[in-house]
Design brief:
Number of helices: 5
Shape: globular
Strand content: 35-45%
Radius of gyration: 22 Å
């Protein structure tokens, strides 16, 4: 990790942070993070991931309902050590399950896993909902005020908040990192950009909370275009089948967790995917067919935006194999200005209730639509807000006076019980603040080029790397 570019103030902040956390070391140099799980497992997949890099390294173990924290910790330690013991025999071959370089072996005692590093190095994910694992923060948004040269991060905490929250800021391809601990009820954090000594063309932000010293999964965003563009380009395993930043919704009494799933687009483990485009993310959101007469989907909010500004939304969707689906179905993307602090309910998200601006019906706030005879033919497709954008239904996303939030949601209904669709995330750009925004055609060309480059890299690496 290089920290040469940090100012003295930032160095002091990080130094204080490190000094206050787990001074015990393996040998005499490596700080240790003691991760102690609590209670029993709900049953599912428990994922432990590193916070470093856009596409993170991770370890996963399958838990059983009622399994003790001690049993899970012992099996997790064994799984980590098995993977890391293979580093010497596999040479330079990449494996996403190596949490660090060097084949380091971890120890476990009772319900405590002793990991090298500090709390800011790790986060959790997967479908396991017990063991004291907290739910993740949601809807992370980055706003940049050029006048004050300040970066403002905003997010939403789950009920009850956390004991504390960590904010991680990365730049220069993750060579530099700035970490700050904030109170567990915080929902905003302001950074003086001058202290980071970097521009805002390539930065990544992550926010995750701790309860009983157990980390949640992270809310994440990649920031570009001098701070006026933000996108969900990262490779982070989901929590409870739902992508980071997003929340499942349904017109049923409660969303069925089994109908939301993490899909994997690139399964080859012999390469590193930098996930620098929506179409090259390794994971994507799968939504399965809901019960009869039920409409469901996922939503997120963009917070702390600028009233009066016009924003462009870009999203990546796929209808998978819905060309062969039987009966009626629809997949659509929507967005709408939302009063600060307010949430759209399931009736509004389903098109059954009026939006805050009075629009109502299934087309209210609609940006794109797919159904029988109109599919992505199994591929991924980029859609845009704006009257001249491919597939666009909504002329603009201009915030009214006094409104600083946009809610974005995906809606899926299907009469075929085997139906399912996919969604890879969104990008939001402040067109009012960007001097020369790229056209949709330029963005599509860049996304296609990124995917071609990745596929070529996969093929090359697969040929050259030993298995």
């Amino acid at each position: 990790m290089r920290i040469e570019s940090l100012t003295r103030c930032v160095l002091l902040s990080i130094g204080v942070f490190l000094a206050g956390w787990y001074p015990k070391a393996y040998g005499s140099a490596t700080p240790t993070f003691n991760l102690s799980l609590k209670g029993v497992a709900s049953g599912g997949t428990l994922v432990l991931a590193k916070t470093r890099n856009r596409n993170v390294a991770y370890i996963g173990v399958q838990t059983s309902p009622g399994e003790s924290a001690e049993s899970v910790v012992q099996r997790l330690a064994h799984t980590i050590n098995v993977y890391h013991a293979e580093q010497d025999v596999r040479g330079g071959h990449y494996d996403p399950h190596w949490l660090w370089v060097g084949g380091y072996q971890v120890n476990a005692s009772a319900n405590t896993l002793m990991l090298p590093g500090i709390p800011g190095n790790y986060m959790t994910g997967g479908t396991e909902m017990g063991l004291g694992i907290p739910k993740p923060p949601l809807s992370l948004t980055c706003s940049y005020d050029g006048g004050s040269d300040k970066i403002v991060l905003s997010w939403i905490n789950p009920p009850g908040g956390y004991d504390f929250i960590l904010v991680n800021c990365y730049w220069t391809d993750f060579d530099n990192v700035y970490t700050e601990r904030v109170p567990g009820t915080s929902t905003t954090f302001t950074i003086d950009r001058k202290k980071l000594l970097t521009n805002l063309y390539d930065m990544d932000f992550r926010v995750f909370g701790f309860r009983n010293n157990i980390p949640s999964n992270a809310a994440c965003v990649h920031v570009s275009t001098d701070g006026h563009g933000q996108e969900e380009t990262y490779g982070i395993p989901f929590s409870c089948g739902v992508a980071p930043n997003w929340t499942a919704w349904s017109t049923a009494a409660e969303p069925n967790d089994n109908l939301f799933e993490q899909g994997e687009k690139y399964l080859d483990l012999s390469f590193y995917n930098p996930a620098n485009a929506l179409s090259t993310k390794p994971y994507y959101q799968i939504m399965k067919s809901p019960p009869k007469a039920v409409v469901q989907g996922v939503y997120r909010k963009f917070l702390g935006l600028t009233p009066g500004h016009t924003y462009r939304l870009t999203a990546c969707l796929t209808t998978l194999d819905m060309d062969s689906a039987k009966g009626d179905w629809s997949l659509s993307l929507h967005a709408a200005p939302t009063p600060s602090g307010k949430d759209l309910n399931s009736e509004q998200l389903a098109g059954l209730g009026a939006l805050p601006d009075g629009r109502r019906g299934p087309e209210a706030g609609r940006i794109s639509f797919y159904g029988p005879g109109n599919t992505t033919r199994g591929d991924s497709a980029l859609v845009f807000s704006g009257k001249d954008a491919p597939g666009g239904f909504q002329s603009s996303l201009t915030l009214p006076a006094g409104v600083d939030t946009i809610t974005v949601w995906v809606r899926f209904s299907c009469s075929d019980p085997n139906g399912k669709v996919g969604f890879s995330g969104v990008k939001l750009e402040d067109l009012t603040a960007i001097k020369n925004p790229k056209s949709p055609a330029q963005i599509i060309a860049e996304e296609n080029a990124a995917e071609v480059k990745l596929l070529q890299w996969i093929e090359k690496t697969s040929r050259e790397s030993p298995r």
